[in-house]
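The authors assume throughout that readers already know how a fold can be written as discrete tokens. For illustration, here is how one protein appears when written out as sequence plus structure tokens.
>
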Amino acid sequence: MAVIGRRKVVFELKDDVELGRTVDCSTFMIQEMRLDLSSKWFDYKTHSCGLKYEFSLTICEARITSVRGPKVPSHDITVFRGGKKDKIKTEWDRSALYFQLKGKEKCVADSGYEGEPDKIVMTKEEHAKDFKEFLAKCKNRQETFHWRLKAFNILGGRFRHGTSV
């Protein structure tokens, strides 16, 4: 399975475009961690224990470009950056999507990613109606992807993790 994942999830885009991918996080409920009882696993969306994953999809192709996780539940922008804003950038996780974007490349994202205008495009009042519709379709596609993952019977409910946790 890991070999298939490495072949199917390719970060590079076929075309060199500034706005080529969407990004969003999704939380999956898990059973409580037995060996690490802590409130850090609490997810406010599900009011339960959870793990957060960040998914990036291409806009013009049917392809996943990035999967990051499992992560401790936190704000979407924190997962995107690889660290909290109050920390120095040199202490952020270099494998974060923030550091993987090249040049002027940006991602379409929802309001959970507010705070990085150089890397994220969000819907704003000053945008043209057509552009707002385009962004809405991009975000809707991303949410549909998350819904399909959760509709998959195994991921739809709480899933077990290794016995070492």
Summary: The beta strands are 19-29, 42-43, 48-58, 64-71, 106-108, 120-121. The first helix runs from residue 2 to 8.
